Every structure is written in C-alpha cells, then in structure tokens.
Amino acid sequence: MSKNVISKLPVMLHGADYNPEQWLDMPEILERDIELMKKAGVNCVSVGIFSWVSLEPEEGVYTFDWLENVINRLYVNGIYTVLATPTGAKPSWMAKKYPEILRVESNRVRNLQGGRHNHCYTSPVYREKTRLINTELAKRFANHPAVILWHVSNEIQGECHCELCQAEFRKWLKKKYRTLDNLNKQWWTCFWSHTYTDWEEIESPAPHGEPCIHGLNLDWKRFCTEQTVDFYKEEIKPLKEANPDIPATINMMAYYDGIDYWKFAEVLDIISWDSYPMWHNGGTDDSGGAIWNAFWHDAMRSMKQQPFLLMENTPSTANWCGVSRHKRPGMNLLTAIQAIAHGSNSCQYFQWRQSRGSVEKFHSAVVGHNGSDKSRIFLEICKTGDALRKLDGVLTADVNAQVAIIYDVENKWAVEDSKGPRNEGMGYTDQILQTYGSFWKQGIPVDVINMDADLEKYRLVCVPMPYMLRGDFAARLKKYVEKGGTAVVTYFCGMVNENDLCYLGETPAEGISDMLGVVFEDIDGLYDYQRNHVVFDSESGLEGEYETSKLCEIVTVKTAEVLGKYKEDFYAGYPAFTVNNYGKGKAYYQATVMNGEFSDKFYKKLCGELRIRRSLETDLPQGVTAGRRMTENGTEYIFIENFVNETREIDLPYPLYDIISGKTISGRTVLEPYAAMVCK
Amino acid sequence: MSKNVISKLPVMLHGADYNPEQWLDMPEILERDIELMKKAGVNCVSVGIFSWVSLEPEEGVYTFDWLENVINRLYVNGIYTVLATPTGAKPSWMAKKYPEILRVESNRVRNLQGGRHNHCYTSPVYREKTRLINTELAKRFANHPAVILWHVSNEIQGECHCELCQAEFRKWLKKKYRTLDNLNKQWWTCFWSHTYTDWEEIESPAPHGEPCIHGLNLDWKRFCTEQTVDFYKEEIKPLKEANPDIPATINMMAYYDGIDYWKFAEVLDIISWDSYPMWHNGGTDDSGGAIWNAFWHDAMRSMKQQPFLLMENTPSTANWCGVSRHKRPGMNLLTAIQAIAHGSNSCQYFQWRQSRGSVEKFHSAVVGHNGSDKSRIFLEICKTGDALRKLDGVLTADVNAQVAIIYDVENKWAVEDSKGPRNEGMGYTDQILQTYGSFWKQGIPVDVINMDADLEKYRLVCVPMPYMLRGDFAARLKKYVEKGGTAVVTYFCGMVNENDLCYLGETPAEGISDMLGVVFEDIDGLYDYQRNHVVFDSESGLEGEYETSKLCEIVTVKTAEVLGKYKEDFYAGYPAFTVNNYGKGKAYYQATVMNGEFSDKFYKKLCGELRIRRSLETDLPQGVTAGRRMTENGTEYIFIENFVNETREIDLPYPLYDIISGKTISGRTVLEPYAAMVCK
Amino acid sequence: MSKNVISKLPVMLHGADYNPEQWLDMPEILERDIELMKKAGVNCVSVGIFSWVSLEPEEGVYTFDWLENVINRLYVNGIYTVLATPTGAKPSWMAKKYPEILRVESNRVRNLQGGRHNHCYTSPVYREKTRLINTELAKRFANHPAVILWHVSNEIQGECHCELCQAEFRKWLKKKYRTLDNLNKQWWTCFWSHTYTDWEEIESPAPHGEPCIHGLNLDWKRFCTEQTVDFYKEEIKPLKEANPDIPATINMMAYYDGIDYWKFAEVLDIISWDSYPMWHNGGTDDSGGAIWNAFWHDAMRSMKQQPFLLMENTPSTANWCGVSRHKRPGMNLLTAIQAIAHGSNSCQYFQWRQSRGSVEKFHSAVVGHNGSDKSRIFLEICKTGDALRKLDGVLTADVNAQVAIIYDVENKWAVEDSKGPRNEGMGYTDQILQTYGSFWKQGIPVDVINMDADLEKYRLVCVPMPYMLRGDFAARLKKYVEKGGTAVVTYFCGMVNENDLCYLGETPAEGISDMLGVVFEDIDGLYDYQRNHVVFDSESGLEGEYETSKLCEIVTVKTAEVLGKYKEDFYAGYPAFTVNNYGKGKAYYQATVMNGEFSDKFYKKLCGELRIRRSLETDLPQGVTAGRRMTENGTEYIFIENFVNETREIDLPYPLYDIISGKTISGRTVLEPYAAMVCK
Q1: What domains does chain B contain, in order, with CATH numbers?
Q2: Does B35 lie at the interface with A, CB-CB under 8 angstroms?
Q3: pLDDT digits over B241-272, tens only?
Q4: pTM value > 0.90
Q5: In whole angstroms, what is the distance from residue A515 CA to residue A479 CA?
Q6: Partner-chain contact A321 B504, CB within 8 Å
C-alpha cells in the first residue's frame, strides 16, 4: 500500500480504546456509551485489545457474538471500529497448557502467567494459536464495513531468551556472518578469550553470563526486532488473506527503544503511536513536554513519509506516572491540534470508559466511573470533537519539511552501550531534543529520520552524535553535502561500524572527516558539575561565549574554518565549532555539548541563511510554536499552539481565518493560555 | 478471656528479653544477672525466644533442664517469666531433614536455612513439629507459678509462596468466592485477558508473574494473615490445654504491615508490641518520634480496648538502624512513662544482656559486654525501675478516649496499591500522623481503631483517606453522625469496595456522599515541589490561607457549607473544606492535603466546640504533651511528658502531686529536658 | 626468593599490557608496534593475558607459534616480556564441555560463560586444565631470555558457592575448629537458634539463607582467600618446575577487598598492582587522588618490604569510570614518578594499543585507534620514557619509613559487617586516608602494614579503628609502646576477637586499655548532618576547637592525660583525645572522628616531637609532596610532586640536581602545574 492508505481513512478520527467485554453483564452500558460517543464527536473506537479470553474462553471455542454485536451497534450509530488482534495478552488456560509460550527473561528464568506481552515470539505453539484466532477474526470481520483498520497486538515489546529463541538467534547469526571466524572478528571476541569455536556456544546477553560484547548486544537487539517483525508478518497473513484492503498498524511507544520501529515501518500500512508526555510537571511553561511530543509526532510521520495516527493519548491523567497530573483546561484540544499539525489524522484516547478494577482503573477516560457527561474531562473531549469535525480538509495535507534530524535507534543502542567516554550519560536524546527544540521555537517543520532515509530533499540535515556509521549513510551524507546540502554534525561521530567495531586510522571515518574538514584527536569527559566555554568572535556572526558541558572533543582542522574555540583547559584554543565547504555544500561540526542559548541562536541564523521557510513568518514568543500542512492543490493550514499557561501575543504577518473558532485574526493577536488555532 | 486478663498481671512489669541459653557454660552469668535484675528493679523477663535448638538439639530429644533451672532461679528471686515458644527460628537439623518447611519467596525460590521466620505457615510438618515442642513446653511449664504469660513465636512476619501455600490459597479463594465467575468479576480479570477458567490457574502475586490484579494482591495478604492466625491458633492449643488461665500474646511490629494485626487481636489474650521510634535523629525536638510512638501505643491499646504490654524497646540504641543513636539522659524513663500514659502495663527492653556475637551483638542492653552496673544505661534503667515500682495503681486505670482516628491496614494496602493518583506516595500514614499530632499537642487522648470498630462512644471520629469501604463501615459511620456524632473525613474517600472494585455512580459511595454533602468529581496529583492554597474566610473561624500539597480533590457541593476554597489553578474557587449537617451530627470534608498549621488550628477549634476534655486543661508548650488514665473508682493519673531537649514551662490549672519525685507542683512549672511526671 | 628478586629485574620497566593476538591477521601491526615502543622508551610488555583460546583453540591443541614469534620479535628489539598465564578467562569450548568449572554466585545460580574470572577455584577439572596449559607454556617459554616475570592470571577476584566449594569450606572449618561445639561458640550460633548439629548443615553466606553470622561471613572470606591462594600455588608449580628463577606476581586491585592480599604476599615473589585513582574529578587540586594512590603504593611496597611493580595505570582515561576524564598534561610523568617515589620499579600501562571492539575499546592506550605517534597521549608517554631511562639508579633504593599505619583487610571486613554503631558507614578507609594524608602533606614516608607486621622499626605507629584484635597484634603493640614506641589509636578499638566475638569485661581488650589508660564506656552514632566539637586547651599545644562527626566514643580515664574534651551533648566534658605514658613509650587515643584540620595539626606537632625525618626539610605548599628513596650505599633520591593544576613555590633547604631536567635548582623554586622532579 502507499501513502494513500491513510488518506483513504474516511474522516479525521476521534475516539478511544474501548473494552465493552468488561461490561457484558450490564448491557445498558453499551447503549449509554454509544449515546455519549455521539455527544463527544467520537467516530471511531479501538475494540478487541487484549480480549483473547473473551473471544476464546477455552481452547478452540470461539465466542465472537458479543464483539459482532458491539461492532454492529457502533456502526449503525456512525462509529467505525479499529479492530485489534488480541495477541498481546494470552489466556491463562493457554499458559497452563503450553508453558513453552511463556517468556524467559535474560536471567534465564521463565515467567509465570501474568501481565501482558509475556509470550515468546518464536514459539511455534504461540504462532499457531495466533494464526488460528486471527483466521477466525478475519473470517468474521475482515469484510465488515465498520472495520477500517487492524490494530495488531498492542504496544508490542520485550524479548525472550528461551532455548527456542537461542536456536533462532544462532540461525540468524549464521545467516548474517556465514562463518564463526567472521563473527569472531566483527565482535572482536579475541578480547578476554571470548572467541567462539562452535555456534552452540553463543548465548544471548545475560547479567550472569556475557553482558559486554557490544556486537553481540547489538545483534541480539536486531534479532529481537526481526523476530518480532517476523511474528507480525505471520500474524497479519490471515487478516490480509481475508481482505487485503484493510490496512494494519501497531501502536508504537516513544518510551520504548527495545525494538527498532523503523524496521517495522516497512511492513506496516499505517504508523500509529501512543503519546504520553509529562505535562504540567513544572511551572507554567509546558514547552519542554511539547517539544518532546512534537519530536515524536514528527518521527512517526517521517517513518513512512505520510500522515500517521495518534492512537492513544490520555484525556487527562496517566495513572502509571509518579504523579497523576490533570491536563489543564484547553490542553486536550491543544494536544489534539499539535498532533494534527505534525501529521496526525486522528486523536484517539486511552481510554473511553474507566475500568472498574485492575491496574489502569484510575487512568483517565472520557467517561469516568461515575458515567457522567457533565465532567470537565467529558466536556473538554466534546470541545475537541467539535473542532476535529471541521478539519477533514487537513487529511490529505502534507507537512513538507525542509529540515531533517537524524535519530537512529541502532546508533542510540550503540552510543549508550559504548563504555566511555561518559558512562554517567552520553545524552544522545538530550542532544537531539535540544537541536529539535531550536526549530520548534521558530515554527519550522522538521522530519525526524534514521540513517536509512533519503536526504536529498532537505535544505538542512542535522546529525547529532552519529557514532555508528551504518549501511551507506556516510556515502549518502557526503553526496548530499557535495551536491549543495548543508549538514550540522556533532561530536562522537563516525567512530564505529555497524557492529561497534572501531575504525582504524583517521576518524570521523568513511570520509566524513574530509567532509567536515576536521580530524578527531580525542574526547574528554566532564563530570556533571564541570564546565568549559566556547568563544566565538565577531566574524562568526555568533559572537559571544557559551557554556559547554559533559563532552569536549579535541579535533584538529584539515580544511575547515574555525568559528568557535575552547576557552579553558588543556585544549584551550582548540576548535570547538567549525564549518567546511565541501563540494557545493557546507558541513558544520560541533565538537562539544553546547548550551541551549547557543543552539537557538545558531539555528536561527542558519535557517535565515538557508532561507528555510517558517510556518508563520514572524518571531514567536517563548512557549508558542506554529506548524503547517499543505494539500496538493495548495491549500495551506497554519496551526498556532501556545504551550504556556499564560496569555501570549504574536504579530501575524497577514490575516488568518481560524477554522475552529470561525473568526478571522490579524495583526497583534492575543493567545489565551493553552490556545490552539487552525488557520487557513 | 476479657479485659481483666491484663489487669490480673501482678505488677507493673519491668524487664527484658533474656537469653540465658547463650551463657550456659558460664553459670556465674545467671547469678550475676539475677543480682543486677534486682538492682534494676526488673520483675519479669522474656525467656525462650528463638531457643528451639537449645530445647531440642536433635529430633525428639528435649533438653529443658537449663530452662527450668533459669525459671526457678529467677522466680525465687522475685522475677516472673514470660515464656516464649521457640517457633520463630527452627533448628538447622530440621531444615535439613524437612526442606518443605523452608519458605519460598515470591520469586518462587526456596530459601536456604538461616535468619528467622523462614518457615512455611502451611507445612503440615512444621505444624506438627510446633505442636510437639509446645506440648512438651506446656507439660513442663504451663503450671509453673513463675510463668505469667505465653510469648508466642516472636515478631511473626512474612509469607510463603510454596506449592502447599498456593493450594491453600486456592481453597481459601473457593470458600470466599464460591465460583470463578464471581472471583473474576470482583478482581475485574477481564482486563488484559486475565480471566481465570480453572482454579488451578491462580497463583499468588509474583514479580515475574502477576503483580497487578489489585483484588488478588489484597486477597493474598488477607490469606497470609488468616494462615498466620490459623498457625497461631494451632500453636497455642497445647498451651491452653495444659492451662487455660495463662494468657498468650504475640510481639507486634509497628513497621511491619504485611499482616493485619487486627485479625490477630481477636485471638490474642493480650496485645504487646515492640517500640522503636527514631529518637534524636534531628535537632533538640523529639516530638515527631513521640507522636509516632504515641500513635502506635494508642493503636495497641485500642485493638482490644484494654491495657497492653510494651514488650520491647531499646535501653538506648537499636543497632539495625542506619545510625545507632543513644537515648539521651532521661529519655528511658520518659519513654516508659509515655507507654504507660497510653495504656501500657509494662516497660520491657530488648535486651537484658548483650550477646557476644551475631547480628544484634551491638544492640543496646541493660547489661553490656563489660557486665557493668555502673554504666549510664544501667543507671537509667534503675531510675526507671524505681519509678515503675510506684505505679502499680495505674494498672487497672483506663484511658477513655473521646476521639477516634481510623487507621485501617486493609485500607492502607489498597491505598498504596491503588496505582494513581500519586504513585510517588499517597501519604496515608503521613495524613494520619498529622491528624493524630493535632490531638497529641493538645494532650487529648485518642483511640486508633480500624473500620470494624464500634464508633458510638466517641465525640469525634477522624477518617483519613477511607478509600476502601469494607464491611458495614459506611453504614455505621453514617449512623454515628446521624445520631449526633462528628466526623472529619478526608480526600480519597469511598472509591472502592473491599476488593478494590471501583464504585460506579456518585462517590464517595454507599451514601457517604450524602453524609458529607459533597460529590467527588476528580483528583489532581501535585509533584512534590508544587503547591496550592486554601482560603478560609472570617465566618469559618479559621480565617487565613493555608498551603496544600500532593493531592487536590475537586468536589461539588450538594448540601454542605463551604468553609475553605482553593485559591489557585483551574479549580480555584472550588470547595476544599466543607461541613455538612447530617441528622443530629456534622460531617467535615477535607478535600486536599492541608498543612500542619491548619490541622492544629482546626482541631483545636473543633475540640473546643465539642467540649472534648484535655488531659490537663492548659495550653501545652511545643514538644510537651499530657496523658490521662482513670481507674473505675475515679482515681485519675496525669502524665506530663517533655519531648524536647530543652526546659519548658507549663501553667498547671491546679496543683498536682508527682508520684515519681514525691513532690507537689503547682502554677507555672519548669519541666527539665526530657522530663516525665506521673501525677495524681 | 628475597628482596633481591625485584632489584634483579634489569631496568626501570616501562611498558604496557599488549594483546598481539588481536592483530594476527594484520602482521604489519606488530612491526609498527615495535617501532612505536622503541620511540616511546618501552622496554617491557605484558603478553598473554586472557589469551587462552588463542593458545588452545580446541582441547589439547596448542597454538603457541604466534606467541613465540611475538616474544622473539620484541626481544631482538630490546623489549622484555612479562608473560601471563591465560587462566583469568577460559575458552567457551571448555565451559561448554565442563559446566562444573562455571562459577556459582551466592544466590546459588550457576553463571553462564562470559566475562572473566568466572571459574571455580576448587574445581579439579579447572585445576587440571590450568596445570596442562601452564606446563606447556613453561615448556616453551620458561627459559626464554626475554621472559623476566610470570604474570599469573590477572586481577584475580571473586568467589564460588558451588557444591565443590561448600564441601571444601566445611573441610576448612573442620580443620580450623575441630569440633562443632567450638565453631558454634566462636560464631555464637546459639543466637536465633543457629547452632549447627552436623557439619553438613553449614552453607556459605547467602542473601536467601544465612547472611548474618559474622563469624561465618569472616571465615567464608578467609576460606575464599586461602582457596584462591591454593589455586595460585598449584598454578605456579609447573612454571617453577621449569625454571625456578623466573619470579611470579599477580596484579592486585586496590578497589577489590574480597581477598586478603596480604595472604597472597607470602607466596608471591614480587608485588604488583593496577593503579586507577579518579584524577581531575573536582577543581584544580588533585591531592585527594594523590593521597589515595600514594597510600596504595605504600601498601604494596610494605607487603613484602621491597620495591614493587606498577603493573597497570592508564595512559589517560579509564573507560569503565562514570566519566572518562583525561590525564592533564604532565600528569602521566607525575604519576609515574609518584609510583617510583613510593617504591615502584616500573611504570606499566593498560594498554599499549586500543582494541577495536568489546568492552575496553575506549580505554586509553599508548596507541589509539588511529595508530598515531603524534597524539598527545603518545607524546606524554615518550616524555615519561625519556625520564625513566635516567632512573635505573633508583632500582635498588629503599624508602625506609619511620611511620607505619595499620590497614588490616580482615579488620575492615569485620568493621563493615559489625552491625552498629553506624550502618550508614563506619568510615574505616576514610579514617585511614585522613591519617595517611597528614603525613603525605609533610612529605613523610609511611609504611602501610597489616596487623601481622613487625612494628619494632617504627618511631610512630598509627592504628585507626582496630576493632578486631587478630593474632598477637595486641601483645606486639603493647610491647612496642612499652619499649619506647609511640602509638596513636582511635575509637572502635579492641572490641572483638578474630571471629567477631565480643570481649567481655573491660575494653579495649587484651590490655590495650592499660596501654591507652582509658576504658571504653559506649559509642554514640551521629547522623551525617549532626556535629559535636572537641576543645583542646593551651597546654595541649593543640589549642582550639575542632569539629567532629559520625562517631563519638565515651571513655573514662584510668591513667591517661586528657588533651581534648567534648564540648556538647550529654558527654560534654568527657575525654575525646588523650595520651598515656606506657613503659618508655606513649599511646594517644582519639575517641571520635576528628576533622582534617586537627589531624594535620596534630601529626605535624607529633612528628616534630618524635624528630621524624621529612623527605625534604621544608614546609610544603598545599598539593605538593616529597618522597625519598635511598640506596644501601647512601645515595638519596628526592622526589618532588605537584598535584595541583597551578604553579606552586617551595623553599628548598639546599640545592638539588633534578635528574630528569638535568638542572640544578635551589632556594625559592617554582613548580609548574603537575610538575615532577627526581633529585639527587
């Protein structure tokens, strides 16, 4: 399927996870829910998540009538179904009868039944059970007009270390390395006498076994990703056989990096995710959470370069957090609009109705335990429903970012496992969010891509900490600059190959050194309380002195121009920030962890020079951002978002029509706290 | 037995845990100890704790002569014996021969022999071994005139997850729920497909299995309590058969909440506990520790509504603390008097003589390793012995509190496992201690009762965080207010039933909402560093603005009068403190975590209005409290306690005679640092 | 062998760990390395560490040619070999074939293959495999002229709890205690019914078994030490049989105290260790790290009272630290000179060349991944190589300390396991380092010895926290003072025997109380934020008031003179610092944790009184120290070290010739940051 898949979804989706199987003995609940859904502008719910025991209460006995009734009742009331496969949580009877399906943790202890995502992705028994239930589900519902999307399993996660998985892992390694000699070289097992002389000697990483062969650690994570993807591919087979036209998705988690989601992107029809920033955890300013959230929205959109679905966010609180902090008034609409601004074609909640018991009973829901349609939360959701109804025109609009930031999860794994130069925290994500934030504050759309993505279409590519040079990324980056692109690359660059094997000779390796015009000499770690400074002179256009911390790389210049130099320590005077002409393009190098003040100043200057278009051609006040989506026929939607619990004023460069309020605004305009606008 | 049991104990007990089996090869130690005990005014020691291997060094071979000799020698010297059963620590030979008696932790790994309370309460073997040793003990000692009390096991604790316990647990569940369907509904297992379809699928909570079904967690704790109580009941059978007139107790621990001690109270003749506050862990003021300790004394007295025994406290330091801080001069007598003021008929120490080796060798004892009777600690104990000799008149005196605070351990389990609104700490105990402290500072006696207790006799009942409404508590509370009582109820009220299943519809449930005149809307969590304020106007009599934190409930008013309102945030203006007329009584509702300043002010005002009698009708200075016990014939004992390492002055409303010093005091009176007085 | 062994090593060694087996497929690397070694003044490398799988890739198949070639190539280029036995890390094939060799942790779970030092020291299989490989190694290399030292295993560590070890442990206990009755008494097992009635009941300490019998804990550590030493003795047999003249060493770790290295000292020919202070973890002053490092150098020298080898230190960063902080310019030479000043006859690095992969790939090396001989690190090593070439004269020079500090690892185990008076930290090492630092700041050489060492030759013996009186230490200490020696003893003194069994009666026990003239009464623990003060009057020569913390002992005086008294708390006025004349000597007693200001002042005064010679008769500025070594013929080498990243000035008492710079210095002399001088 193609980019068109998502735009074929009929409307801007508004809805929630819904578990009617919890209320089968109170049939009035379903009818009341439908009434409330209509009131709240809900047009779509996710049904069937973790419902296996309700669908197959004993082996081979399927009880689907309740589900069909629910789907039918919703449909005749105008509510679509996103239908889940139930495989994220298996019935107890299955665990009891087939203990092999229970997951084994890295300590090699098999779990008991319980929780969710507690199964082995390799187990032939579990795969067969999955095939059977999905075949039945598809038979019954794949051609039901209400069903618009398959929601496969849910929040897929974890890894299994059972003997079945060990055997598959060895097969996977044989395929990758062909010979043990090759594997031993790439993993550098000669160190500490770890050379394998028989494939059977290889075990997955274990706290009481082998935790420190980096190549093994990386390959294990890759294997787990591929094994999970393989399970997914088997899982959707019966669904696709029944009706190839229903798209399928999984619900990704930003906080989970155990899987390389980008490998999943290739096999999914639609990207969707659950968004849980820690709102209101400080004072009045929520731009920190907003930047984090915007970043992940962009990552999801960029995965398939098409609109995505916001599959979960909380109507107000998330009860698994340390503190259940309510979304402040306006925040629900604002976060829905934020998602749409970054490419979402939905705003879905976890959850529609609070469960009466168990571990998420106090997670906010659209409908609380009291069942009220007068609650503050319900009314906020209604307000959002009203707004979303007006935004169907956005569905086919694209973001068209001119800037890309490389976030590569395999590189993240490698950076965090690198052992030095800062085991107290390399700050990969911090550096990326700092860079991302400098664009967010300008209202400049950004694509968040990994090292496999195409670079050609961007005016600017930011490459924070590209420690590991996977695949042909180095070649493509050089080519991109050579042909006229601009790249900003940071410290901890080009040091290892995809198996975490260090490059010998000059680094940054694979010619990145030539592109940057600098050569790596060494890198110094700073304790959290230690600082250095970088001094830029007036010619740089960045005049001033900026605090640096954590990591200071020492580089020498080949061809680059030095813009900023270290002020202190034995590398005082050494270059800390450089730019190099390479082909028709330019490559900047940032050798140390600069502070946010510098980052904002630098990227503002650079975007100006590169004539990168802001969503709104005005300087935005602190905490406010703007986004943009444009249809193929040129209709432009401008999203204005105030993430501060205070009023803000902006100067509009031209009058705009706010679709949500139905008002035209112009000139100096006041934004209410947590205001959200969608303008044409 | 009845309330008279404890008052039949012959004297105000003063003594300690004593382990003469450690010194059998130094017979001079026993004689020296008796000499020193008499010097220190010791009239009673606990013997036989953890002595199993000394009593049965090989299977079926009993060696009781040493014990009989000790008991005899003590008795002829006027020292009673509290005789322990040895079952808290089994011999190694037993563990080796019968591995099934070793406990299995929640990770399903069987312990090795070691420590104490490391046995299975279910094991038929262990129960039989317990029966045999206790039968022999009773045969020999149950009719010995020295033996005044059975001290059963010691500091009973822990749980076992072995297969025998799993089977018993399932039996227990079948009895409680009758059908799986019923259990599944109450535990809401439908969530995450956890529905059980066979009883054999149920396992106790496990970190690598099922940790998050709240109903299961609660029932498991209830089962463990009942299994432990059942073990106790079997354990005392041979004791009672030999002589039904010797009462029995267990030694409870305030820091341990794994067992619902209130269930034990029903089967015990006498309540006793070990008191280990963290004295002197700050500056000069010890009122924090004093409030904690007083609270637990009151809880122990209230369990059976009769005097209790202070079974352990340290003569000076507790070596298992992070820091072994000595009791300052006077503190030992002060803490003895504090215990008696709150209903204790004893002051017992752990321990009489320091052991030479093992893990408690540096725990303070009356007699240290140097065996001296000149040590500061020994002299402090002598001083206490002298004082206690004068207090036999107090033995039959009651406290007669007019105020009750509900502390319910089952509710505590539920609150702390609730998952939201503050997983960083719900503060159940903090809220209770704050409330309790407001009475302590006024010198007002308080009963600490659980939800099963009778409410009728109190003028005021405080109900902090009654999240879970167990049994008929709600009905009794409403009836109590209706008939003219006053209740102060706080946030997080009436949300779940006894299986942690949320009430649907209006809450606080079961009519508590009517009683309070308010309806719960939602609850907001605050991070530790966030604050709100509540404003009371002048009509409330509490005029002012008070800081609140952690949890802010949003409620609406049905019939209540609003006394205080939130000042900030989106619920500014919402009621935060209300009062409602209900029947002939009044019900206050505190919707948020108020600060201590407010708590003290409010309860002072309220106690005045309700004409609740203070132990001493005067305003007490900071750190000083007063208690009261009264005999049936009207003799009143007033206890004055200064918990500050500074002198304090109080204005006595009338002259008092201090029994300890033998002096009459009146008018403005100076209290020395850590002074204690018992006045008539 | 004797003291002469080390001085027979041909030169001041300069070199590194070298792992050429990692580069066998790049033969040009070996030649390049030899070239670079010569440039860097390297004359000796450690080869073969953890190389087992390269030497025996399958069972019984030995592949030594590559090693012989390396040794030959090095030798013809003037580079000696320290040849390692490979037994620290076994091949995977061996673990797979003989699972019994895998270590079992205290939780009784057998490790998987992985890491290093993951074998059982008891296993007959592992001992046989070790014998076979070492026999082969010795056959081939024991008479090779290049091989000057056996480097046995590497960083020996850890313990195994397998059944084989349990059985050996029981045998060891039977030998020590003969009867169970004796063992039970010494371990005081009567406590908590832990009496053993069969040897088979005894198990090593376990978190889920018996963690709290202190005697068991101590004996287990002693057994592990002896079992490891026994393994070592078997391991070197084939080496010594082949050529008894090649000395053997192990590479000790200062951070590891699981083994009593002093027991190893007896069987080693040469002491060597790896030195990893945390340099530059604060501001400009590195004297904290310098004191720590100097202390350990002195401990290593004192073990056999002969020069030792610095076997490892980092050329710049250690990648296993939280932060990889580079050695600042000059620091490498300074740390080499520091080692030599304290008795080292070498400066060896970990590592010569950075490995390409695995867990230490970013540990600094003389040659980095880029292979450069222009790197800052390489040039620093060259500078050190140049300096060391001039220092062969120092090889036979001794330090001849007049002061000794007792650091006893068995006592440390006991102190830290004592349970009271401060489980939050007894501060044994802190107290020792504070004392040690007071000499370092004066430039006074110190021996660091354990309780078994001879005391007679010292003018001053410092005895911090001699909690456990092992062997005849008390008798020897008393005799030492009696005959005219001076001792400074601190709090927590003479409380238990070697099995952690408390002394009864007066303490400090075994007559130490007489020697000190004080009697222990009790000890008070202070929380981290609590303080007391000690006041000295003018007669003491230490006039002033000094802050104390953590532990305050209460003692009474028998014959001692009181120099300082507590100022606050209930022991105000009690002695806190005393001195006692005993025979012809004096014994000081420090009853509390004094601050550093006092320590420096006191020891300066005392050293003056005792006419203890400073290395340089001048007052040294902060951060600067001086050391001294003298040959038998009276040639004196003075080492001047500036551990501050600032210039310092000293006043030389007489002109000196700096061998390194070849310059004569005199009078007021400026020391550059991190300057190091070796003067005659």
Answers
A1: 4-160+224-395 (3.20.20.80), 403-609 (3.40.50.880), 624-679 (2.60.40.1180)
A2: no
A3: 999 999 999 999 999 999 999 999 999 999 99
A4: yes
A5: 9
A6: no
